[in-house]
Amino acid sequence: xxITKVETFVLSSQLKEVFFFSxxxxxERRICIVKITTDEGxxxxxxxxxxxxxxxxxxxxxxxxxxxxxxLENETIWYKMYRKTLDFARRGVLAAxxxxxxxxxxxxxxxxxxxxxxxxxxxxxxxxxxxxATGLYFSKSDDLTAKLVAEAKTYVxxxxxxxxxxxxxxxxxxxxxxxxxxxxxxxxxxxxxxSNHAYSLREAVELSRAVEEYDxxxxxxxxxxxxxxxxxxxxxxxxxxxxxxxxxxLRYGFQTLLENNCVDILQIDICGAGGLSEAKRVSTxxxxxxxxxxxxxxxxxxxxxxxxxxxxxxxxxxxRLYPPDMYIEYDRTENDIRESLTAPSIEMKNGYINIPKLPxxxxxxxxxxxxxxxxxxxx
Length: 379
Description:
It is built from 14 helices and 14 strands. The chain is globular, with a radius of gyration of 20 Å. By secondary structure, the chain is of the alpha/beta class. It has two domains: 3-115 and 366-373, Enolase-like, domain 1; 119-360, Enolase-like C-terminal domain (TIM Barrel), CATH 3.20.20.120. The strands form three sheets. Strands 4, 5, 6, 7, 8, 9, 10, 11 and 13 form a nine-stranded mixed β-sheet that branches. Helix 3 packs across helix 11 and helix 9 packs parallel to helix 11.
């Protein structure tokens, strides 16, 4: 079996309502996906996390390395892409391009061998995971707190056992909104906060201490990802677990994060940091350091299902007869592409999502939806 075609598509959808977080404003969802096809007519789909047009250019760069290769040798292909980009892109968007290709190859491999990706990765330690609702972004509103409270209540009504909210406007505003959301969801629902590295160390310490009483599950990206020493110091000054890693790339970046004792929870983005192949290597590093992994997930059903299979394959805590549940991020912000691109649709029952049993990633991409959201021609 040989790879005969690599097609990339930039999908875009304008939002009905603009939302923002501490760094950027979103008025559009723009996502790069890739389709890899073989001479036997089997295809796999992948997705990159980051600036879609740049990811597309990166995939174009590595495409000559893919044509004619056996897609079952996905780790060999991964290394060729890594070597091609090593001198000028050890970190960043080109790693996301490699990620998209790698995810597509795993999907293709699963379909060719008629096995779920998680089984091919070594097996399913978990048969189900707990999704947490990512939402509660900022928006222009006369009463933002009331709007966030109403949104948080809908997640509880939908059966979510955990929700994550944005912070990073200002410390007084953050404290007020966290207090209100905690009161709205009650004490039985897990609550996490994410500042998208909005704060200095001093500010992060101040906010952490002020919201500790609201039983925060973790504080995500409290400070700049450049400041490893600040992550380490913050961990000594708060009882809230510190999470981060969505801005790291490849095992080498995560090695730095782990060696500096930066986080309690590692948040690799599979579609950005090197794909499923590299994520599995990073999981071994995290295991050696005794650090929990909860992937960062943002995009379509392709990215979500890649994360599902990755989590299914993660080793549980050693020595526990009944290990704790593992979590997956489930973005609930407006995204028409995510809601229509893949089938079957994601289904949560009693606060859990089951690991797919179908071959590959366990979803099919609707190519009519690709045509609808893409300016490229799908042949």
